[in-house]
Amino acid sequence: MFLSLLIFLPAFFALFLLLIKKEFLIRAVAFGSTVFVFILSLFLVKFVDPQIPHLQLVEKVKWIPSFGISYFVGIDGISLWLVLLTTFLTPLTILGSWSSVKEKVKMFHVLFLLLESAMLGSFLAFDAVLFYCFFEASLIPMYFLIGIWGGARRIYATLKFFIYTMFGSLFMLAGIIALMLMTKSVLNGEMSASLLDFYKLQIPFIGGNFLSPQNLLFFCFALAFAIKVPMFPVHTWLPDAHVEAPTPGSVILAGVMLKMGTYGFLRFALPLFPQATEYWTWLFMFLGVVGIVYGALVAMVQTDIKKLVAYSSVSHMGYVMVGLFAMNLYGMTGGLYQMLNHGISTGALFLLVGMIYERTHTREIKKYSGLAAAAPIFAIFFLIITFSSIAVPLTNGFVGEFLILLGAFMKSKWVASVAVLGVVLGASYMLWLVKRVFFGPQNDFINSFKGTLDLNKREVGLLIPLVIMVFWMGIYPSFFTKRMDVSLKYLLDNKYQYNLSEQLDRNENSFKLVEAKLKKVEDHQ
Amino acid sequence: MSEQLLFVILLFSPLVGFIINGLRFQSKNYRLSGGLASFCVFLSFLASVFLVIKLAALPGSQRVLSASLFPWIEVGSLSSYFRFVVDPISSIMILVITGVGTLIHIFSIGYMSHDERPTKYFAYLNFFVFNMLLLVLGDNLLVMFTGWEGVGLCSYLLIGFWFTDEQKAAAGMKAFITNRIGDAGFLLGIFLIYSTFGTLQFSSLIETLPSVSEMGWTGPITLSCLFLFIGATGKSAQIPLYVWLPDAMAGPTPVSALIHAATMVTAGVYMIVRLGDFFMLAPYAMAVIALIGALTAFFAATIGITQWDIKKVLAYSTVSQLGYMFLAVGVGAFGAAMFHLMTHAFFKALMFLGSGSVIHAMNDEQDIRKMGGLKKSMPITYWTFVCGWLAIIGAPGFSGFFSKDEILWNAFQSPMGSKGLWLIGVLGAVLTAFYMTRLMALVFWGKSRVPKDIHPHESPLSMTFPLVVLGVLSVIGGWVGVPHVIGGLLGHMPNYLEHWLSFSFQNKIELPEASASLEWMLMTGSTLLVFLSAYVAYDFYVRNPSRPQLIAAKAGEFYTWVYNKYFVDEFYNAKIIQPTVKLGKGLWEYIDVSFIDRITYWVSAWVLHMGRAFRYLQNGNAQVYALYISLGVVGTVICAMLAGM
């Protein structure tokens, strides 16, 4: 019950929002409800046993029995932190939108809450069809968020985003159907869409033969996820989508939705098609490294701050891919860690860019100069996030980048030697940006705002949790890694025979636990 | 007090200072902020004194104190702890960092009194000390790297402290990015060490080492040493990555004294000394280090001769002196390197602070052509600067004399050294005497060329007090490491430093037996050359001020070449930075926009086209639909029949 509660609470609140008329109340209820969902999701840290690599808090209800499709959700160490990342970023984003979204407020928040449900569903679904539904459902609110509240070229950008992603997803759908048909052979003629049944399949694989089933299926999934990540060379939807998206859209798009792609690789591609994944590792390592260097080089020459951050995402997600395909514990832990880091630091960067954009209505780097003197508090936050983004030790970015590069080095010294260029280039584009925007004398444009550029209390308040996470994850990463490592290690050790089993019984207990906890809180009051 | 507590005070007191001052960063009360910051570092200094006393009480071979805080990155078999050690090597460092650090903090109170953001300055300065301590105390490469990057970060913030000046901000950025190139090398070194030896901890790494040296270039030890050395060339400003340090003089002068002379830039030397036993197994890498060190020592000194900015002269001098330290580690003389590191910290910090005192008195003028004759108006600054000058040129008895002589002797006599290295070192020393005397002459001696509207005055006590302390240290600091030939004459005065470090390296080089007379001869010879060079400089710049210009004019092309620092910056800009930016632009315009996007347009246009084609099939005519259905049935039947066969 607990996971379903998490998934559908936001959607439920979305329905509730429809009844409210006052704009302020809508914002407050949306914020309050997402905070509530976040607090609720924190219990997952308690409920999910880090020692067990298997699925926990499982719920399974038959949905379309004739095809073996069920409503099947569960959680393990791989999805735990992604779920928390989603519930953590959503309220902050809503709080951040208070002054930027002024039109169609109700619709905005309804869509946003629906989006949260869809994202949570994608990270928790263990039925392929259910996953597909959530995966696709998340596109729709985002499509509208960009298309309605976006910038001048929003229609172009949102269509590009939608078509690109849909194009990939169709291949995935075909792949899912093919896998479902295959399950008949292992389940005595029954069909199943459960991932756990998929994992039992031994899909024929012939190395050099691209048309052998495992290769074909692998690429069906890989294409869908690669577009979502986005990997070079299918990344060109991302800069346009980000530049045109409103701030909250960018934050969630970069912070959470891109991770659905990398998560997909981890959840589907690797355990379902282990031989194909291994066979094509070189290709994905190569594309990942190209993404790191290419994204950084292109980011360096951007003239629009947001586009720069968007291309930096390409570079950072390249790191994640390199880490995952290093196929060792260091790389994979680093990759998963970097997903969270990227969500936090790039999410924060988009929030910050949005905050200054609201005041100056421009994102042209050229127009800025000497912002640090005009907006010192803004500058401090921006610098802290910059350091996190360029992976200075004791910030979260370092832990991820270090583990990824270490893992890559263990796999191939050459890959790591090229990837390490990203360390230099990353510092170059970010610090050059900082220098041009924040340093130097204040120009007339900045002066014309007469000291109204600095952050207000609401903005400081929403940035502080992000900064805390930057340092917490940088200084004490064991708290996070020890809750993902058992699952990752199990996946790595058993990738050819990935027998993930379900721990059904615990979920009822855990639900009772929450009830007891909530009751205690009430008693206290 | 327990060790753990001492460690905590040592490390965290500057961090606490940083947090307090950081939170009240907009305060303009420079006395309060500066006082707090100085107190925090002083507390650290006390803690390190106590720790070193405790350390000294232990028997020689067991001199290690350690404290463990909590686990950091723990994945797979990698488990790195925030664990810290004080042993004889790091004890020298912590005393220098916190001791000289305290003095520079105090100096800053006076220096930054007119600044707009003094609290932010002191916060950064404290944070720097914290990171530097992290660097030297860490018991594994990962914690060391944390401090390594952390000090780079503080250096970035402090060089660009006056960020409203575009050039200063650019200098900070340049420093960070150049250092990042080194750090990338450092990271690769860490990976190679971990993947080869399975540990990043210094003590267990030393235990797992093979006993035979590794010959050739491609062995894991040699390669990781070279990678680590790339990191060192960045942080310690050696060829080819030294270019950031002269620009780093854009920061406030006490920062140059603390970070860019006494402590941070010596991190590369410290790192190699810390891994001394490891580096000793890679003679090829050591040869590279010695050569780069010697070349840098000479090369930077030549540039130092031609500069007109007081801080630039000192900056190139720092690069050059760091070169000596690398020369020392390269020939296996780790003790000598640490010795010079320490004396250099004294006299170079002294001279930077002295130059700060001068700049302060000259209303921020840094051009030595506009100075001269300052010895009358600034007596304390002058006399302390004289101590520093005598120390750096190696006047007998002053601190620099002993340490530099030890390096040169090792370069000459060590089996890993050579006469060529020694010769480059001596030439560098001759140049050093020349440019330092030139600096003295142009700033303090001769006629005053000070513009009329500036009235130089002696600095306040908070600035002169640190000068005096450092002046004393520059004079006597060398007596902890008196060479045996001299010690023998003075009633068997022992070489304390050598004893202190005697258990730190298992794999020590043994200098071949040499006659005392040879050592005396080399020592006297180089000292005489140095004095000659200093005299020539005095002659040039005090007695015949027109002569240098004549010589510069005669040297023509060569002079412009040296004066413009061999156009290295221009070369890097034209051959590395601009092409990179161009590459980025090219990739964006030609690959992203014109190629990938265009393909996606084709694909979508094609899909649209197909869609139109299918539209004709669905024209709403029921008879046509019926045709489709019957065709479908026929098709299905045929398929079924084929399947049946």
How is this structure best described in words?
The complex is a heterodimer of chains A (525) and B (645). Chain A is mainly alpha-helical and 525 residues long. Chain A has a domain at 280-483. Helix content of chain A is 73%, strand content 3%. Chain A has a two-stranded antiparallel sheet. In chain A, a hairpin with a 4-residue loop joins β1 (56-64) and β2 (69-75). The longest helix of chain A is centred in the first third of the chain and has 33 residues, at 154-186. Chain A is globular. The two termini of chain A are 26 Å apart. The mean pLDDT of chain A is 90. Chain B is mainly alpha-helical and 645 residues long. Among the domains of chain B are: 1-139; 589-644, no CATH class. Chain B contains 26 helices and 2 strands. Chain B has helices at residues 3-23, 30-57, 88-111, 118-137, 141-159, 166-197, 202-207, 220-235, 244-247, 253-262, 267-274, 276-280, 283-306, 310-330, 334-361, 379-393, 399-413, 419-443, 461-476, 484-489, 496-500, 516-543, 547-555, 557-563, 568-617, 622-644, and strands spanning 65-75, 78-86. Chain B has a two-stranded antiparallel sheet. In chain B, α14 packs antiparallel against α18 (419-443). The model of chain B has no long low-confidence stretch (mean pLDDT 90). Chains A and B meet through α7, α13, α15, α17 and α18 of A and β1, α5, α6 and α25 of B.
